[in-house]
Amino acid sequence: MNPDTWLIVPLYNEGQVVGDVIRHARESFCKIVCVDDGSRDDSGQIAADAGAVVVTHPVNLGQGAALQTGIRYAMGDPAANYFVTFDSDGQHRTEDAERMVQRLRTEEFDVILGSRFLDSEVEAGLLKRIVLKAAVLFERMTTKLKVTDTHNGLRALNRTAAEKIHIRQNRMAHGSEILQEIAVHKLRYSEEPVHIIYTEYSMAKGQSLWNSINILDELFLNRGL
Fold first, then answer.
1. How many structural domains does the chain have?
2. Which of 10, 100, 110, 132 is the most buried (most CB within 10 A)?
3. What residues pair up with 133 in beta bridges, in sequence order?
């Protein structure tokens, strides 16, 4: 049940979907913190009823801020050694998260990054893949990290990485900022193939092509380009 691991789940207006996500995740991870980022529905209560600890932002601050809040909360547990960022819309698989944590236990890495492009069954459309590959090229040039997927929400950190990474970008550009933090602090990292579940719901929430374009726009604006 991974008692030394916390799942960090940012939450915003997910409704009943998050209940299914939390109930399934609790079969593998007994410690889950959901950060309700100013939801206007009863998502937070649904997550709590499903077994998660819920921390609430009174207003919507963005996914980056929610992750930062969740990581800091989980680090208050002295038994916690590993921290997994996990989306609340059903796109991630717990078996991938378990495998990533196991690599942190047995290999000399501080961070394991999920990559959908190392999965032989990647389902992203052609235009979306082009946009995400453009983000990869941008990050490789600016951070020098040899990564294949820069905005995958599934990541596993050990305590060293969680203590050093500080997320200041509140919205989608936080994925880029995490890579910058890995580079600046010279954290040991690797990628792990993960399968993303593209449903109609997850596409509407954050997996759309338009959302990917917004990520690129934020990257260039935040770097002053």
1. 1
2. 10
3. none
